[in-house]
């Protein structure tokens, strides 16, 4: 059972703790053996001294009974060994549940479980996810249970709601999508994460703003940069992985429709019922430089995931940054496009899976190895048109939908399927299966 799913009672039980300590890859068994070897050597040394004293000193009669000399030697040995090992076991158990557990989140979480989780997450595949909005945060929420080598590359084109107001009034990069990613990857107390997502519903100047957006902007002013603000905010909420902007430039997303009309601003692009489809999207300025750390993460990745999320306003804006696009093209990682489970009004109404893929290839020029799609459900989800499907792209149908909401992905189902793709292509360590087996 993964430590992240241990409840408070289970974390205090000695046997689950012992099993986790002895798991392969923990790096602890050698030190436990050395510990017992040291005790054995000390016992041997004491034995030599006691034997010397026993030979030259006459003990009082009660020592005969206190040392159980009326019993056979083998029986005495068994009794003393049992007492010694029992004392060591109780001591280690109590040490773990008192002193060591106090070092992690107020003593409520077992330190061995935490170590067990971190050790295995550190050995997970290097996964880079690109996107924005609720789709990216949903994906990250599932992936963080499978690997600690996780990078989220987030679009900076958002200009709506609280984010848009802060961007226009203070000239900062849009914090909204970063806030969602931080909350999704946070390993902090649930109350802290809930606070980060809290949105004010009243108050002059505060109404509509989320606490997390204000926190990030304040942190940017304190640290002197938006980039540092994301790093420090991630540290405060104990984020698993890293969150990076695709570019630090102040960009504006534009769209050209099939009737040659254009729209400027990410929030103005989805126009339900307009009739004309989006032909292409573009950034202004076009030469926005890619974030160096984002490029590095892409080049070192084992798996690159595009989506889920709004195709034209969350996923494609990342590919419009030339450095990001070139890094994806140069990367040897397996590249997966996760198709949305439902049509998006004003963006992908009536789209087939093929048309989703064509839009990605048209804007990114990046080779896609696998498209992961939910089997069509009546009334939801894109259909499939095999007549124009590229021969070099694998299409995988999988049940990745949230059973409580057929219009959204299920984080655990989606993450488990992506890890399976990585494993099948020889990217992910097999040991990972023992950590996340319950999600398979």
What does this entry show, briefly?
The protein is α/β, with parallel strands linked by helices and 440 residues long. It has 18 helices and 12 strands. 47% of the residues lie in helices and 12% in strands.
Name some characteristics of this structure:
alpha/beta; 440 residues; Rossmann fold; seven-stranded parallel beta sheet; three-stranded antiparallel beta sheet; 47% helix; 18 helices; disordered C terminus; disordered N terminus
Walk me through the structure.
With 440 residues, this protein is α/β, with parallel strands linked by helices. It folds into two domains: 3-116, no CATH class; 124-156 and 246-439, Rossmann fold. Helices cover 47% and strands 12% of the residues. It is built from 18 helices and twelve strands. The chain has helices at 8-12, 14-21, 29-56, 61-66, 73-100, 111-122, 133-143, 161-170, 176-185, 190-197, 211-223, 226-236, 292-300, 311-319, 322-330, 353-364, 411-424, 432-436; strands at residues 127-131, 150-154, 242-245, 252-257, 262-264, 278-284, 303-306, 334-338, 370-373, 394-397, 401-402, 405-409. A seven-stranded parallel beta sheet has the order 3-2-1-7-8-9-10, with helices on both faces. The protein has a three-stranded antiparallel beta sheet with strand order 5-4-6, with helices on one face. Strand 11 and strand 12 form a beta hairpin. The protein is elongated, with a radius of gyration of 29 Å.
E-strand count: 12
**CATH structural class of the largest domain:** Alpha Beta
Mean pLDDT across every amino acid position: 84
Strand content: 5-15%
- What would you call the shape? elongated
CATH homology group of the largest domain: CofD-like domains
- Strand adjacency order, main sheet: 3-2-1-7-8-9-10
Low-pLDDT parts are 1-15, 427-440
Judged by helices, strands and strand pairing, the structural class is alpha/beta
Q: What would CATH call the architecture of the largest domain?
A: 3-Layer(aba) Sandwich
Query: Mind summarizing the main beta sheet?
Result: 7 strands, parallel
Terminal Cα span: 12 Å
**What portion of residues is helical?**
40-55%
CATH fold topology of the largest domain: Rossmann fold
Number of domains: 2
**Rounded to an integer, what's the Rg over CA atoms?**
29 Å
